[in-house]
Amino acid sequence: xxxxxxxxxxxxxxxxxxxxxxxxxxxxxxxxxxxxxxxxxxxxxxxxxxxxxxxxxxxxxxxxxxxxxxxxxxxxxxxxxxxxxxxxxxxxxxxxxxxxxxxxxxxxxxxxxxxxxxxxxxxxxxxxx
Length: 129
Fold this sequence. Notes:
This protein is mainly alpha-helical. The protein has helices spanning 15-21, 39-47, 57-65, 95-117; strands at residues 6-9, 34-36, 52-53. A three-stranded parallel β-sheet has the order 2-1-3, covered by helices on one side. Helix 1 (15-21) links the parallel strand 1 (6-9) and strand 2 (34-36).
């Protein structure tokens, strides 16, 4: 990783945290590289060969499956945030809202299962509530 251009997504923990968690020494500064304000742009830069991005797995599953990206490390840096499904109070019981909420929770459960299979603790991942 030392000779790679690091691609940063400014909305999440990034490379400095990754190197600290890995107890990895980086001779260069882990804050240098390309910066983007959105994860999509960081992913596109990685696909374009501009460097190595640190992004959420669901954002790159298709690109990895399609051979456009690879995961060069088995280590995963766990997020520090959460996502919330919000809706106006008056529509919370509408069937379309319930169907979407149930689907979203099922997707989260499936993702947690896949991550557990990789020996990662599901409790360390961002919750969708």
